[in-house]
C-alpha cells in the first residue's frame, strides 16, 4: 500500500461533526487522536444512554453552534501530555485527510489551553501516512495519474 506524505499540520474534514478543512496537528508522539470538546456529558434519551458535547473550533474562539450526540462511544484510559493516566470518552467518526476517507477514533478532551484543537496520533497514521515534519498541508486531495 502506498503511503501518502503529510506535514506536521494538515487540513482535515470531520463531516459527521460539521467540520470542513480545519487544521489538525500531526503528533507522532501521541498514540490516540484527540479532539477539543466542552460540556461533555452522558444523558439518557428515550431510555438510551448517549454522549453529548460541543466542539470549539477552529482556534478555540467559537463554537460550531450545535451539541453533538453520539449513541456509540466508550471510555478509554489514556496518558495526557503530562504523562498522567486519565479516563476520556472515545468516539468514532469519518475523517477525510489527504484525499482518503476512513473511520477514525478520537478521544474528547479540554484542549482550550493548547494551540491546536485537533491532534492526530499514530493510530490514525500507521500504514497510511508518512510525516515530513518540515512541511505543512502536504495532504491535498489525491488525484490519480492516468
UniProtKB/TrEMBL annotation:
InterPro entries: Asp_endopeptidase, Peptidase_aspartic_dom_sf
Pfam families from the UniProt entry: Zn_protease
GO BP of this protein: proteolysis
GO MF annotations, alphabetized: peptidase activity
Annotated PANTHER family: ATP-DEPENDENT ZINC PROTEASE DOMAIN-CONTAINING PROTEIN-RELATED, ZN_PROTEASE DOMAIN-CONTAINING PROTEIN
Keyword tRNA processing: no
Keywords: Hydrolase, Protease
Domain annotation Retropepsin-like aspartic endopeptidase: ranges: 5-137
This protein's name: ATP-dependent zinc protease
Amino acid at each position: 500500500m502506498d503511503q501518502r506524505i503529510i506535514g506536521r499540520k494538515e487540513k482535515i474534514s470531520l463531516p459527521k461533526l460539521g467540520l470542513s478543512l480545519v487544521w489538525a496537528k500531526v503528533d507522532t508522539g501521541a498514540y490516540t487522536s484527540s479532539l477539543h470538546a466542552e460540556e461533555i456529558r452522558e444523558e439518557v434519551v428515550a431510555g438510551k444512554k448517549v454522549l453529548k458535547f460541543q466542539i470549539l473550533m477552529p482556534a478555540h474562539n467559537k463554537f460550531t453552534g450545535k451539541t453533538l450526540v453520539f449513541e456509540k462511544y466508550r471510555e478509554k484510559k489514556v496518558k495526557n501530555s503530562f504523562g498522567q493516566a486519565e479516563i476520556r470518552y472515545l468516539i468514532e467518526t469519518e475523517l477525510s485527510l489527504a484525499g482518503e476517507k476512513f473511520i477514525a477514533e478520537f478521544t474528547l478532551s479540554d484542549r482550550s489551553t493548547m494551540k491546536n484543537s485537533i491532534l492526530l496520533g499514530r493510530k490514525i497514521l500507521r500504514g497510511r501516512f508518512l510525516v515530513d515534519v518540515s512541511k505543512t498541508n502536504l495532504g491535498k486531495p489525491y488525484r490519480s495519474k492516468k
